[in-house]
Structure formats: structure tokens, C-alpha cells
Amino acid sequence: MEEREADSPPAAEKKGAEEEDDFGYRLFPDRNKKPQSFLVRSLFTFHNKCQLMLRLTLETNPYARLLLEALKQSGCTVFNDRHFSCENCDGCVSGGFDAATSQIVLCQNNIRQQSHMNRVVTHELVHAFDHCRAHVDWFKNVKHLACSEIRAANLSGDCTLMNEIARFKFGLKGHHQTCVRDRAIRSILAVRKVSKETAEKAVDEVFDACFNDLEPFGRIPHSKADAKRAYRDFQNRDRYNANL
């Protein structure tokens, strides 16, 4: 999870976890509370707005729709009421993937705009896709975490030109790669009690392989138009494979 605008996995089983590392759970206090009744939750505007924005993202956003289909094809069908949870979080994070429950946490107190919801859901769905297709050791192998963070930053739209301009960050050659690397490092530092040097080393050691792993998009979707083309290509690829 990246500070201020982190969208990464807190995810971990608390039982047996070392006391000095809570795997980011401190950022998600509602994870430890009993779920509120629907009536109680419905009284909170944040929760209602979060649910409405989530539904719109899942139904219309090409990034999310592609990932949902890819997860389904990989044997990990995602259900809205089971795999997403709108909760209050620490002020520095926007969302997270809880691998212990295979659930995406959306920070209803921090996500206020639809574009932000689109990006957070996509980022966390990349983590969910990695969790489904590979044996990711989120808790003990920092290189595994680094790889998924690189892929999520690269494929979710986190580092699009417009988003970087909004952050007052400008660059020309190689700026996208720099953005992906920096956000991956910040995300690791937010959810793991490791040194900056350890996080940087983990990211650098796996960067090339993970940056070039573009599944399931097949390309870096730099815009919604790119994501739509990737979604169309993914559907055509599926139809082609079905006819083999």
C-alpha cells in the first residue's frame, strides 16, 4: 500500500505472523471488526457511494471487465458481494487485497471520485489475478510482492500521463518505468516493515521480467481506449482458443 494513494495488498494471515510486522493490517482497522448489519451500513453515505461506484466500475470499466473475465477463465470467478468490501481505512490508503480471504478492500472514506474507484479496483484486481494464477507468497517473499506491485502499477493506469501530471510529476524518456518502480517501492514500504534498500533491491531484481509480463492485457493500457482494445483482443483470443 502506497502512502497517500496506496492501492496494494495488506493481505496476510495474522495468526503466526511476527509481531514486528502486521503486514499492513494497521491500515485497515475494519478488518478486525465484526461486520455491521446492512441497515446500519446503509445509513452511512460513504458506504452507499462506494457500493454505487464499485458497481459502475465493474459494469463499464474496460480494465476491470477484462480482469474479471481473465479471473473467471483462470477458475477464480469474482462475486461482488463476496470479494469486495467497502470499509473505512487509514487516511493514507485507497484499497488493498486481503489474500487471507481473497477479498478486495475499498477504502470508502478515501475514494471520492469514479476515476479513482476505477483505478483502485483495477489495481487490486491485478493482485487478485496474480493470486489466482500463481503461487504468490505475499507474506514471506518480498520479491513476489514486488512483482505484483510492479504489474499492478504498470497495468492499472496508475502511471498514465494525466495521473502523473495531476501529481505534478513530469518526465520524458523512461518516465513510465520510473513511475512504476517508485510506486511499487512505496507500496512495499507501506505494508511491510522492511528497509527502503530492501524494497528497492527486490523491485530492481524482478523489474524487467515483471514489467514485461502484460497478462492478461497483452499490452500496457496507457488509456481507456487502450484498455478497450485490449479487452476486445482478449475476447477474440478467447474465441480463437475455443475453436482450436
From TrEMBL:
Residues 1-29 are annotated as: Disordered. Residues 1-17 have a biased composition (Basic and acidic residues). One of its GO terms (molecular function) is metalloendopeptidase activity. Keywords: Hydrolase, Metal-binding, Metalloprotease, Protease. Belongs to the peptidase M76 family. GO terms for cellular component: mitochondrion. One of its GO terms (biological process) is mitochondrial proton-transporting ATP synthase complex assembly. It holds the Pfam family Peptidase_M76. Its EC number is 3.4.24.-. This is Mitochondrial inner membrane protease ATP23. It is an enzyme of class 3 (hydrolase). PANTHER family: MITOCHONDRIAL INNER MEMBRANE PROTEASE (PTHR21711), MITOCHONDRIAL INNER MEMBRANE PROTEASE ATP23 HOMOLOG (PTHR21711:SF0).
